[in-house]
Amino acid sequence: MARLKKSQVDSEIRNAVKDTRLWDDDPRGLGLRIKPNGSATFFIQYVSPVTFKKVRYSLGQYGRLTIDQARIEAKRLFEEVAKGKDPAFEKRKAKHEAETAVTLSEFCDDYLRDSEAGLVTYRGKPKKASTLAGDKGRVLRHIKPTLGTKLVRDVTTKDVEKAMHDIRLGKTAVDVKTKKRGRAIVTGGTGTATRTVALLGAIFSYSIKLGVRTDNPVIGVEVPPTPKRDRVLSPEEYKRLGKAIDTFEKSGANKTALLAYRILAVTGCRRGEIFGLKKVEIDPHHSCLRFEDTKTGQQVRGIGRSAMDLLTLPPFDKKSEYAFPASHGEGHMTDAKLFKKICKAAELEDVSLNVFRHSFASTALELEYSELTIAGLLGHRTHSITSRYAHHVDRALVSAADRVSAVIAARMEGRDFISADVVDLATHNKGGTVA
Predict the structure, then answer these.
(1) What is the Cα–Cα distance from 170 to 414, expressed in whole angstroms?
(2) Which residues, 6+ apart, have CB-to-CB distance to 191 below 8 Å?
(3) Three-state DSSP class for residue 166
(4) Angle between the 235-250 and 395-412 helix axes, to the nearest 10 degrees?
(5) Which run of H or of E encompasses 293?
(6) In whole angstroms, how large is the CA radius of gyration of the chain?
(7) Rounded percentage of the chain residues whose pLDDT exceeds 90
(8) 235-428 domain in CATH 1.10.443?
(9) How many CA atoms lie within 13 Å of 212's alpha carbon, on the beta-carbon side?
(10) Signed CA dihedral, 295, 296, 297, 298: sign only
(11) Domain boundaries along the sequence of the chain
């Protein structure tokens, strides 16, 4: 073994027909790998003081480094090895730190972008637009203000707990102008804190998948129980609500929105299911809605005659594919500002559109329907063979929906419900059973 010389190296490169390694003895362990294509790379070979295994560590290409420069770098690195350091290990560590030196704010942006691209899934399916909208709001209004500046790899369980309590106590509450006529009123609270922590858990799980972290700091966080929402409408409140809707209708308010509110009241459907209802999903013959996609997947939902009579009214916008199109632009309606005005006029407190769903279930229970039947009416996800059958529209299930919707419609009209208000389904719906 001898010192490498430029003339020798150049000759070896010109005549290379296979991989060749030339060694230098100043310092010992410095080598040059020559490939048949003429490229040549300096490297050092040593036993790692960390893993105690033989390591070859590249220094750079011949041409970019001279032999003398390679010797200087090799000597420096061998000194590091003698001190107990492994240059290859340190390089990998530095690369990993650079890749993981991302703030939670930046990673949340990546998470949301990947979610929109369908790379982040929930129960094996891409997240829905409504779910993404909620995620964006929680990231912007709660996660970024509390944890956004921290590096993803540095966030601890204690940090998550502090953020959760800050959100619960309203420290992230804001009231800001968002658009020309828009406002964002963020209040925080226990429910918001719980949902935000759940989203953080999903975000950190995704960071593990991408190799940014090896653990999830949300695991172990004791989340406060979300208060159960048991608000339901009484017969008198239904009457006031119906009267208020009638008043707004006569005053020229948005007829599409008013109709959507009425249908939500008499079906117990989720807000998004009715707002995003497509005309092709309405099946008057079998008195059901054939949802292409719901919170629990594709579904057939039986509805009562009171609801179907409303749904089969002449459409306000014949061009739109949606039963309830947006007032401006394409798509379906999403805003519920008018409903808040209606509730104020009806002197109804703590009532959201979701209260319709609770009230529908309460009315069904009042009529002594079983929990299984009510689950079928509401489209809940259940797992028994019997409950799967209840999710199909059979005569008994549609009859139940018919009776419940008739009771609610009667209450909204301010009259007492009697059994004669419901026509036997065999007469009303000759389409029979939908399997």
Answers:
(1) 40
(2) 226, 227
(3) helix
(4) 70
(5) strand 288-294
(6) 34
(7) 60
(8) yes
(9) 24
(10) negative
(11) 6-99, 101-209, 235-428
Regions of the chain short of the pLDDT cut 70: 1, 175-186, 226-229, 295-297, 314-317, 381-394, 417-435
Q: How far apart are CA 353 and CA 231, in angstroms?
A: 11
CB 206 within 8 A of CB 329: no
Name the fold adopted by 6-99: Double Stranded RNA Binding Domain (3.30.160)
Residue burial 292-311, b: 16+ Cβ < 10 Å; e: rest: eebeeeebbbbbbbbbbebb
Give residue 231's identity as a one-letter amino acid code. Answer: R
Q: Using CA atoms, how far apart are residues 318 and 382, in angstroms rounded to an integer?
A: 37
> Which SS3 state, helix, strand or coil, does residue 32 take?
strand
Q: Using one digit for the tens of pLDDT, what is the confidence trace for 60-91?
A: 999 999 999 999 999 999 999 999 999 999 88
Q: Are strands 28-34 and 40-47 parallel, antiparallel or unpaired?
A: antiparallel
How many C-beta atoms lie closer than 10 Å to residue 314's C-beta? 5
pLDDT tens digit sequence for 296-344: 667 888 898 999 999 887 666 678 899 999 887 788 988 888 999 999 9
For domain 101-209, the question of CATH label 3.40.50.720 is answered with: no
Q: How many helices (H) and strands (E) does the chain have?
A: 18, 11
Separation CA 156–CA 167 (nearest Å) = 17
CA distance 167 to 423: 51
